[in-house]
Amino acid sequence: MTKNILLLDGHPAAESLSHALLQAYADGAGAAGHQMRTHRLSAMSFDADFGVSRFRDAKPLEPDLQAFWDDLLWADHLVIAHPLWWGGMPAKLKGLIDRSFLHGKAFRYDDGKLLPVALLKGRTSEVLLTSDTPKVFLHWIYGFGLKQQLKKQIVNFVGLKLLRITEFSPVRNSTPQKRAKWLKRAEKQGRSV
């Protein structure tokens, strides 16, 4: 079944391993016949600061955020590729989420209910994560807090069922052969979505 896939290069730099992994994923998804739209965080211009205390006072979306939001509504599947920095996502990527996953659009609170209503149900998501942290440290020593945040407090919160987080690590001192294997893995995932 053909899917509409939104690809988000969540690295704030124009050239990165995240970008290469996302391109490999896109190559695989394209070969499988899926339709894709891509946004590159490095090329997007917006104020990453939510900057208000109430949802109803949220600033209007800048054109790049509005285009991202429109494509998210078009998509069946969201793929985000980004690095792990200080145990989390880059600040500009978090800003994109803060600014675009808004109350009344991505979720809403109903009077008398404790938990919000997810408004993006029926869609799936996955993350391609690069890191210098070896997996054993990320999972067993540090507890992989980003996974909990992404799954429970971002994507599932708004209804984007998180299918998987694929880790590519450690990036530091990785060989060209290792990176080539990672790119093949990302391409294979794109084919199998």
Would you kindly provide a written description of the structure presented here, covering whatever features stand out?
This protein is an alpha/beta fold and 193 residues long. The chain is built from six helices and seven strands, in the order E-H-E-H-E-H-E-E-E-H-H-E-H. The strands form two sheets. Strands 2-1-3-6-7 form a five-stranded parallel sheet, sandwiched between helices. The protein has a two-stranded antiparallel ribbon with strand order 4-5. Helix 1 links the parallel strand 1 and strand 2. The chain is globular and about 55 Å long.
What's the layout of helices and strands?
Layout: E1 4-9, H1 17-31, E2 35-40, H2 63-74, E3 77-83, H3 91-100, E4 107-108, E5 117-118, E6 123-130, H4 135-141, H5 145-158, E7 160-168, H6 176-192
Parallel strand pairs: 1-2, 1-3, 3-6, 6-7
Antiparallel strand pairs: 4-5
Helix pairs in contact: 1-6
